[in-house]
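Bug #77: duplicate submission created two jobs. Keeping one. Sequence:
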Amino acid sequence: MNKCIIFCLLLATVLFSCENKTVDYGLDTYYVELVTAQNGNEFLTDKGILLVATPDGNQKTYTLGDRVLLNYTLLSASSGDNYSVRINGSAKIPLGQLALTNDSVIRSSSKEPVLLESVWLGSHYLNMQFYINYKSQTHKIGLLADSTRLESDTLRLYFIHDTNNDPPGYPSHTCLSFDLKDVLGDPGKVRPISVQINTDNYGDKTYRLL
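Kept job's structure:
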């Protein structure tokens, strides 16, 4: 298969859930959220809120546009939709590639199952978290779209997974984001999205998202 239509990724274990959540232990409240790195110590949430982190010598640095799983505590709200936060922990999330191709390639592409935990939309990103059985070989992960059907009412996407003959190993958890900005159409327009994913737990299933 042409390497330009797949995203080759050695899946790394993520030590905490990728889904957005709020946890209150009584003494302090922290938030876990997928965000996009901006300039310096700023992060933009998928809801358009700008998080400005307090200076910290141990804080990781990220490149503009990086997807980041951010664990933070809210310190104060500033003007508009800007918030001052303290970062408790963070991890870079791989940004997968969406490839435009044709129906023949989509049908013949490997779609080996994953153990799906969740799939959801955040701004113009499609986010997924799942487990694969990993031992030593780089798995091939990607998202395909039929270039001849981009103008249809529903954006149809196909998740591909090739184990690359990786021998049986152990469950490895990962989180991925795919940037759909270039194929969603006009900004602000609500467009249905369907993504076909072959899963261990639900079979070959099509998920419909708005």
